[in-house]
Fold this sequence. Notes:
The longest helix is centred in the first third of the chain and has 19 residues, at 4-22. The protein has helices at 4-22, 42-57, 69-77, 88-96, 149-160, 176-184, 200-208, 219-227, 265-276, 279-283, 294-299, 308-316; strands at residues 31-34, 61-64, 83-87, 110-125, 140-142, 170-172, 190-195, 212-214, 232-236, 248-260. Strands 1, 2, 3, 4, 5, 6, 7, 8, 9 and 10 form a ten-stranded mixed β-sheet that branches. The chain folds into two domains: 28-116 and 255-316, 3-Layer(aba) Sandwich (D-Maltodextrin-Binding Protein, domain 2), CATH 3.40.190.10; 120-253, D-Maltodextrin-Binding Protein, domain 2. It is globular. It is 38% helix and 19% strand. The chain is α/β, with parallel strands linked by helices. Helix 2 (42-57) links the parallel strand 1 and strand 2 (61-64). The N and C termini lie far apart (58 Å).
Amino acid sequence: MRSTTTRRAGRYFVACLLMCWGSASWAGAPIVIGTGDASGVYLTVGQAICRLYQQSTGSDCEPLSTGGSLYNANGVRTRDFDFGIVQSDIQYAALQGTAEFYDSGPSPELRALFSLHAEAFTVVATSPGIRRFDDLMGKRVNVGNPGSGHRATLDALLKVKGETESVFTLASELKPEDMTRVMCSGKLDAFFYVVGHPSRAIDNATRRCGAHLVEVSGPDVARLIAETPYYSVTVIPGGTYANTPDDTTTFGVRATLMTRADVSEESVYQLVKSVFEHLDGFRRSHPSLARLTPRGMIDNGLTAPLHPGARRYYEEAGLLPPDTH
């Protein structure tokens, strides 16, 4: 006869199996959100989303620090986690199986929840002679760590120009938390960063080593915007950072929250509800979120279909008409 301890262990094991099996389908299930590195906006935004989800449902939510958009899109695709913050261009590429996802093919199971802040392709340089993107040819730059959205956006811009990263004398792959230190030491002329503003990393670079923002515009940029559904002109207001008193014109994307079609409708519904019903507090969690509106979060930057759980909340809140299909 088995001991009482053995029987209890067996019952506990069965209970755990049932809980794990059903965790994707019960309301308020624990969730993990792929975010970004410590110096960017994604981690702070993910922490704010998790805080609201925990307060609303009483269940756990982990904002996982990651390498950024590409890492998050792959993590959602491969079911390493169910939610990820990704740039709208990365969301589109993952859904369609283009660009970095060409070899893996389309992922029609990907779904969108809502969009977040606008993200500008931002060029930060130290030399006074670097005023436009084309001034960077032959310079030492940081192109970004593999798996980052800013690396993918840079490559898209270079492609439309008929160039590759070989036009730079140095194309380092530093993470955002390292690039300012290296540039201030004199080993880099510039770095690229797709980020919401204001950004702590860019503020540090402009204050610590006299860096400034660089204009990214012209016929090639206009063609890139015209050919893609996720890029648009973006203006970084003058005075946002030291040494850049005038507006800086560039282009950009939007950050979005992405998941898969097989993720529990109830979990998605509760997550969306927790953010939209506490939107004032959410906007205060980071300056880049200050201008978010419910309509803009549904209309802007969503390049994948809405998840049914998100649509359900938007219909109940009167933000979308009922889906009659």
